[in-house]
Write a structure and sequence with these properties.
By secondary structure, the protein is an alpha/beta fold. It is built from 7 helices and 15 strands. 37% of the residues lie in helices and 31% in strands.
Length: 262
């Protein structure tokens, strides 16, 4: 495991010494250096940082204030104080510091801090993975329960990146197979779903939707015109849609029967 680490100290000599000690340990990627707390916060917002090693006495924004601000970030890093102020240890640990090291720093001591960080990062990653898996399981359960529910029979459930969108079937203009995904187009927006076109054909209201081609399902309420290109080739133009929809020769007769065109 590689620990992504940020050094924060206004004394350049102290930063050089700490960088040297850390580089001897290994499994560490120093992602940057900062001379005060404000710069550290900006770097943590721009980059993925696992651990911030910071001094307490710094200009503009000291270590304690910086630590408090770090905890407010969306993905807060762990932080450890490396300082010449031994009297601040209790306050530091009350703020949730991973560790507290009194200068001058020894390599064996900073290695213990890195080992602590590795354990905490591993624990955090396990928790995040469990939460992610639990969320996926909950979404799958909701979808399964909704499949046969008459209450939501007029809705199509589309799962995208950790959320479920409930789309009125009457708002769907057409669906198009695009490799392993299916594009579902509505008046307001388009959705990329994990449905297959065959599974969609079973879920959509057969009174509204028609399988025009191997790659297309259309809402017949949106059909504006059907153009015969000759030799059994057809295209369809739909309302609120610029795309030419292919109508296969075998489906043309079925569409005429469905819509009562004699």
């Amino acid at each position: 495991m590689t620990v992504k680490l940020l050094i924060v100290d206004d004394d350049e000599r102290e930063r050089i010494v700490l960088r040297y000690l850390l580089e001897q340990i290994g499994d560490i990627q120093i992602v940057g250096e900062a001379v005060h707390g404000l710069e550290a916060l900006l770097l943590c917002q721009e980059r993925r940082v696992d651990l911030v090693c910071l001094d307490i006495a710094m200009p503009e924004m000291g270590g304690l204030e910086t630590a408090a601000k770090l905890k407010e970030l969306k993905n807060p890093p762990f932080f450890a104080f490396i300082t010449a102020r031994p009297d601040m240890a209790v306050k530091a640990f009350e703020m949730g510091a991973l560790d507290f090291i009194v200068k001058p720093v020894e390599q064996s001591r900073i290695k213990k801090t890195i080992d602590k960080a590795k354990l905490q990062i591993a624990h955090r990653d396990v928790i995040e993975d469990m939460v992610s898996q639990h969320l996926k399981a909950r979404i799958d359960l909701i979808l399964e329960r909704c499949k046969d529910s008459e209450l939501y029979s007029g809705k199509l459930f589309i799962r995208e990146k950790g959320k479920i969108s409930f789309v009125n079937q009457t708002d769907i203009i057409f669906c198009e197979s695009q490799g392993k995904k299916v594009l579902i187009c509505t008046d307001k927006q388009d959705y990329v779903s994990n449905y297959t076109l065959n599974s969609l054909e079973k879920r959509l209201d057969e009174r509204l939707f028609f399988r025009a081609h191997q790659a297309f399902i259309v809402n017949i309420d949106y059909i504006r015109e059907v153009i015969n290109l000759g030799e059994g080739s057809y295209i369809m133009h739909l309302e609120n849609c610029q795309k030419d929809i292919i109508l296969s020769r075998s489906k043309a007769k079925l569409l005429k029967d469905k819509m009562g065109m004699y």
